[in-house]
Design a protein that fits this description.
Shape: globular
Helix content: over 70%
Bound molecules: adenosine-5'-diphosphate, magnesium ion
Number of strands: 0
Number of helices: 9
Order of helices and strands: HHHHHHHHH
Strand content: under 5%
Radius of gyration: 16 Å
Amino acid sequence: VDATIAGAWMSAMGCLVERNKDHLTALDAAIGDADHGTNLARGFAAVRTALDAKEPKTPGEVLVIAGGTLISKVGGASGPLYGSALRSAGKCLGDELDASPTRVAQALRDALAAVKRLGAAEPGDKTMVDALTPAVDAFDAALAGDGDLGSAARSAAQAAERGAEATIELQALKGRASYLGPRSVGHQDPGATSTVLLFQALAEACEA
Ligand code: ADP
Ligand code: MG
């Protein structure tokens, strides 16, 4: 993964978020404040603008800029969470020009750790952690089984999707949805749902 692929990842995420904006917002309307789709669409549009302006030369720099932009431009909980995730992934990659699949796996692991640190959520709390955790595990497993980056990202996206679907029956213990208590059961978590898109976007960027 070089700066071009990392940039393509962020662009693909912007497109997927834009296309799924209404769905994400509808999920957030059920157990939150109906802004998840618009939050992310605005955030990733700002990421595209920042990357076009700064023309980063390494994948690490791409992700650090993307993360910083989400942190400063998105008001909701998801901005700082996704922002910290991408910034940690970028910092992990340092100034490498072309990150190997193993290094990408380490960066994704750091992204998960950053979300858990900032949000203090564990699997089962009905948050993006419920999609991100199985996704990162599946990414590692696919690489260990000789998969290439694109297929590892596809397995991660599928694992994230299963994780997101499994949030339906959970009660939210973190974030805005937790205010609903047991009434949060029966709805899919919006952040876990957008995490699926993050891995689909990575797969698209790697396969292009
Ligand atoms: P807000 O809740 O501030 O309106 P968004 O609607 O953009 O922000 O994002 C909501 C999503 O953020 C939730 O669906 C959940 O996945 C995620 N989230 C909220 N709080 C946490 C947390 N403490 N840890 C991890 N993820 C969280
Ligand atoms: Mg919201």
